[in-house]
Amino acid sequence: MDREDLNFILQEGEGHKIEFKERSSTLDREMVAFANAQGGRILLGINDDNQIVGVSVTNRLKSSIRDIARNCDPPIEIRFDEQINRRFRYPTDKSPDRLQAYLERIGVRTDTAPEKVLLNLDVAERDAPLLFKNAGVMFFAREPARFIPHN
Fold it and tell me: CB-based burial of residue 111 (10 Å sphere; 0-12 exposed, 13-18 middle, 19+ buried)?
């Protein structure tokens, strides 16, 4: 999801497939409701007034959310937008221009290697080659739509 998508979702508000949660409390009910319907997205860190209040995404929080999903009967499959996109191949699928354009847009000049910049932006994980998270694919892929499923 990019900023434009998020702005659109915030303007539209909650609906049959979108739920905003300021905190992770009562996530279990929302997960089960979506699992019993046609699925959906729960966006943490957004209040009932459609305002981004933020939430610290920690390993503890992610583990807690996974536990909630796993303890449902039947267990619910979830995914975080932070997950690694296994289909994306670095550097082949990376756009040659998007990272530099992004850095220019935010006013950052750097001689740092692109791999280090991507790791510092937390859109990839160190491996040989780099493993891109979905956020990295959406920002820096040649063709993001090839790698991110549309629901």
Answer: exposed
